[in-house]
Every structure is written in C-alpha cells, then in structure tokens.
## 1
Amino acid sequence: LSDRIPRRLDATLRERLQTLARSADVTLNTVIQFAWGLLLARHTGREDVVFGATVSGRPPEIEDVESMTGLFINTLPVRVDLREGGTVRQALARLQAEQAKLTAHQHLGLADIQRSAGAGELFDTLLVFENYFVDGEGLRRAERSGELTVTGSEHTDATHYPLTLAVVPGGHLTLEYRPDLFGPDQAAALLDRL
C-alpha cells in the first residue's frame, strides 16, 4: 500500500496556473501534466518522459451508454518530450494537441496499447486529474428532504505505481508513493519541487 502526502496550493499559485492555462489556450489539466512531466524529466535526468494519465468518458458508439452504471475510466500514456524546445506555451500547445489526438482512442485498454507499442510497461508514474461533477445542489435538496444526510465524502484508492499524483480542483494535491521505494522526505521533496 502507498503512503500519502497531501498539499493544498495557495490561492495565488492556483490563480497563476489558471492564468497560464487561459493565456496558452489550454486546459488546467494540460498545465499540470506538463509540470508533472517536467518534474519527472528533472528527477530522472531524461528529456523525454512518459507517465500514465487517467481519463474518463462514455464511448458514444455504445448504444444507451448514458444510462449505464459504472466507471468508465482508463489510463493512457502521456509523453512530454522536452527535446522539441520552444517556449512553455508552445510545449503546452503541443501537449494538448497530442492529448486531443488520443481522445479517439481513450477507450482502448492499457494492455492493448502496450501490445501495440511492442513494449512492456510504458510508464511507472500516474497522474490523476479529478474533475468529475458533484451535484452540490442535488445533495442539499436530498438533505432538506430529510431522507438523506451527507456528512462528508472521502475516497480511497491504490495503485501499483511507485508515484501517483492526484489533483482535485480547488488546489488539492495528493502524492501517493510506495514506501519501499521512497522515503517520506524524498516524496515530500518531490512534491515541493512540483
């Protein structure tokens, strides 16, 4: 099982990240992906890194998919190649364009992707950008009806990857790390460099 280090980005940094995303005409997810790729590149000494990113969505080609219950998530490889040079904004635009190309294949299983690539493990770190919708007003209505009381929410998950960065809107970050591979000080230092 992994150990966890939570962090909350201060309001100034959150606004700077949002401003960068808007000015570069990319999503906040793309900015976070680039930052994670840059951190991995610096940590490993490589200019070309690949990590996994969790995606979600319901494939429109499946009839009645909108009425199906269950998780429609997958993990896709994300490549950040710093050898291409250019400005940060250009790198962000390239990364977002690459991610847009993957959208058509986001439902292809990771094992199938690995087989197609002709390689074993494609990555050993994971980035999860959690941007799912929570119907706050619906929850409040249910509470007012007296039939349901929500006292809080929490989730627990685990992966086999040595490092997993989970990002939740509002500036909440959690770095999960395998304690057999990283000490708490090493993991905290990585998160601080992000």
## 2
Amino acid sequence: MPDMTKIDKNNQTEAATKASGDHKSIPGVTWNEDGSATIDLKQRINVSGEKKASIRMNYPSVTFMRENNEQIKTLDGENDAIAELCGIAPEETGQIGWPDYLRVQRVFSYFLGGDAPNWQMQSSASAS
C-alpha cells in the first residue's frame, strides 16, 4: 500500500504551487539568473572522477536545437543532448537515479518549450 501521508503531502504541495501560479517550481531545482538550472541529485554521481550532488544544465541554443532536433525524439538521443547541455559524458548520465532523471527531463522540457521560469520576460511600463 502506498503511504497516504506522503501522497497527501505531495498533493498539498502541488496544489499550493499551482495556486501560487508558480507552476515551474520543481523541488531541488534552482533556476539561475544566467539562464541555466542547477539540479540537485538525491544520489551523487561520479563526473570525471569527482562525486557530484548536483548538475548544472545550460539552456540550448538555436544551433544546438538544429543539430539535435531529430535525436532528442529517442531516450538515447535525449540522454546525449542532456549530457551535452550539462557538460558531462553520456555514460555519466546513466548513473542518475530515475527519480532524479525525471526532474532533469522536466528542466530539459522547459528549456525546449522556451518556458523555463528564468527565461520569462518581465513586462515593464512603457515610457510615453
């Protein structure tokens, strides 16, 4: 049986997030001012011989999308694209636990959709 207290708490958190209008808030993700996102990992991964508790994903460029558009339609292609945006080897992303990877995918999908919260334009009063 699932732990109903966890489910209820998750539903309350999700409802509060939606009510606040901050639907892009993902637990364990920091949306950086430079346009990147830092994703905390529950399980550390080994990157170039160093244990990492987080990875930083850069936003894709138009050139990146042009070169990778077809390949990101498969899990292997998506994995390679995510690895490139995070500056790690595709083999290293294989160490990411599935729950962590699902969060990584959400960040990636926000970047692909152009609606990552750190890329939202703020409206400003126009000068008359």
## 3
Amino acid sequence: MHAILDRIMDEALMDIPRFGGLLSSTVPVDVYQTVDDVVVKATMPGLKPEDINISITGESLTIEGEIEEELEISDERNVRFYVRERRYGSFYRLLTLLTFVER
C-alpha cells in the first residue's frame, strides 16, 4: 500500500512547475533485497555525491537535492530554445523499504 501511494504522489508531482519554471523531478530507482542487505540504485546523471542528501528513518529512505541550471549565456532574454528536455531544480523521493534498515 505504501509503495502504491509513493508512486501516485511521485506521478502527481512530477511535472508541477516550481520556482519560476524549474520542474520538480523524481529519481528513478531500483530497490531490491538480498539475504543481508537492502539495495537502492538511483539514476542521477550529472550530480556529485555532495549534491545529494540521503536520509534513512526506520523503513523510510529519502533522496533529495537540486540540479542547477548551467546556462552559459550572458543575456538569457535573447535565448530561444528549440528543444529543452533536461530538468533543473529540486528533486525529492521518499521510498518505503518494507523492512527496518540500520545505517
């Protein structure tokens, strides 16, 4: 049930414009459990580990951070994008791991 609610919330919030046009973005993950560990693999291209905040509380894992826009143009008003698919702004993902996790 928690996983279903997480997915519904992520999908509902995925494309809401925030902070002057920056888009909120979810983090794609794979989560699996081995005999000894719970493994979470997340895709966050272009980010350094120090740009990502990860916290664990009981059965909840939170991944959050911000992707800065790297527009190298002195006067942004004179820019006309033909394709703009990369997302910028804050991202937040809350996962329920279905088991208690020790740090």
